[in-house]
Specification:
Belongs to the glycosyl hydrolase 1 family. The protein has 486 residues and is an alpha/beta fold. The protein contains 16 helices and 15 strands.
Length: 486
């Protein structure tokens, strides 16, 4: 395998999201988000867990930043809660919210850590959902633009790297197709319509950014997984091509080229799932050029030809899909059934949550995205969710996480050696956090938070074994990767 040193200015980092760590759900004027409301519905989250307290980063960010500095982080990616800046999504700016993020940014910079700001990580103000029906309304485009304008003016002099939307493919699918996330809708046509509005908001934000922060860089973060064919049979290869168009190109082509893949657009039209695209929409999407592509990588997928050669028909009932698994639970009468069947890859191990572990797929993903779009890549998420055990002497020996990260970073190094320009790598996540629907037992962090689904305890921060491993990797700029793990 080709190897090459990581660039001297490589941004070794870690990531988080506001709702998953901040807590302080009603503190200092913050308004409710759709997540604050959604989790109150019985049965939606494990053990009824919420982000009302989370890991209380809002009150303990100085402690967390000090730990980041101890680890040697060069970058920290976090999101801003829209409803902390504008409690009702519009109207009067909450200066306490501005001050919180300003203080966090200053603290990071004082410790030599570059802040990487995500504008939207799934937590739309509830007032905008109530008033305008959320992302289904074009009214949200100028409202999102104003929100971004406030942030660009407040922090643009101190923040170089910005992310527009995090995993648009995930929050639209889980929110509008499978009713697993807010706004708790199960309607594929509405999902595609809302997705188009978000694309327009993304393009609007990028164009505004380039006017207000000309020396900065901005791009979306996308949950990417390369889809491979089960065999060399031409129909399996075609199925993999179609799966990549549906799962990846549908979003990335719009971000980077300003147009939707024609095959998928035609299929939506045949299924009566198409949405309105005006001439002005097309012009806007073409005009916005991201400076980089953020890639969140956990795994890809494997597919074979569809079970039955069906002709697309309208009014199908659609089955539930885990977007990270990139597969329908059952293939009958789903959008996917016209294109491919998902299958398990027998060569890959799986995590405790059933996600395939595919480090080589990481290299393939990075090289594929770069060759297709010719934009620098920022790895904005990659990590392992696992059950961590706190020992009697208060240690967390997470060698499984070290192995996972080491193997993926070696493949990232190989992608760089193959010519892919990579700005940095933000592991998910720095501390343990609320894992959306999975409560606090699915842990990702380098820092253990001593709490569980039922008891917040003292929220003590305890560095894991992986914390010190990553500290060493950063100190030697990745030179220890090949020998770090047996």
């Amino acid at each position: 395998m080709m190897t090459q040193q990581f660039p001297e200015d490589f941004l070794w980092g870690a990531a988080s999201a506001a709702y998953q760590i901040e807590g302080a759900a009603t503190t200092d004027g913050k308004g409710p988000s759709i997540w604050d409301t959604f989790v109150q519905q019985p049965g939606k989250t494990k053990n009824g867990t919420t982000g009302e307290l989370a890991v209380d980063h809002y009150h303990r960010f100085h402690e967390d930043v000090a730990l980041m500095a101890q680890a040697g982080l060069k970058a920290y990616r976090f999101s801003i809660a829209w409803s902390r800046i504008l409690p009702d999504g519009e109207g009067v700016v909450n200066q306490a919210g501005i001050q919180f993020y300003s203080d966090l940014i200053d603290d990071l910079l004082q410790h030599g850590i570059q802040p990487v700001v995500t504008l939207y990580h799934w937590d739309l103000p509830q007032a905008l959902q109530d008033r305008y029906n959320g992302w289904e309304s074009r009214a949200l485009i100028p409202l999102f633009e104003r929100y971004c304008h406030i942030l660009f003016e407040a922090f643009g002099d101190r923040v170089t790297y910005w992310v527009t939307f995090n995993e648009q493919n995930v929050f639209t699918s889980l929110g509008y197709r499978w009713a697993s996330h807010p706004p708790n809708v199960s309607n594929v046509k509405r999902m595609y319509a809302a997705n188009h509005v978000i694309n327009l908001a993304n393009a609007t934000a990028i164009n505004l950014f380039h006017k207000l922060v000309p020396n900065g860089s901005i791009g979306p973060s996308f949950g990417y997984g390369y889809v491979a064919p089960e065999s060399a049979h031409p129909l399996d290869i075609l199925a993999a091509h179609d799966a990549n168009q549906l799962n990846n190109d549908w979003w990335l082509d719009v971000y980077c080229r300003g147009q939707y893949p024609q095959k998928i657009l035609t299929l939506l039209q045949q299924l009566n799932l198409a949405f309105d695209i005006t001439d002005a929409d097309q012009a806007l999407l073409k005009s916005a050029k991201p400076d980089f592509i953020g890639i969140n990588y956990y795994h890809g997928g494997t597919v074979k030809r569809p079970a039955v050669n069906q002709q697309p028909t309208a009014d199908k009932s659609f089955t539930k899909i885990d977007p990270y698994l990139m597969a329908a639970d059952t293939q009958d009468d789903s959008l996917e059934s016209h294109l491919f069947q998902s299958v398990s890859n027998p060569y890959l191990e799986k995590t405790e949550w059933g996600w395939e572990i595919d480090p080589i797929g990481f290299q393939i993903a990075l090289r594929t995205v770069y060759e297709r779009y010719q934009l620098p890549i920022f790895v904005t998420e990659n990590g392992l969710g696992a059950f961590d055990t706190l020992t009697a002497d208060r240690q967390i020996n997470d060698d499984y996480r070290i192995n996972y990260l080491n193997d993926h970073l070696l493949q990232l190094q190989a992608a760089i050696a193959a010519g892919v320009p990579v700005i940095g790598y933000c592991a998910w996540s720095f501390t343990d956090l609320l894992s959306w629907l999975n409560g606090y037992s699915k842990r990702y962090g380098f820092v253990y938070i001593d709490r569980d689904d039922h008891d917040a305890k003292q929220l003590t921060r305890i560095p894991k074994k992986s914390f010190y491993w990553y500290q060493n990797v950063i100190q030697n700029n990745g030179e220890s990767l090949s020998s770090e793990v047996n």
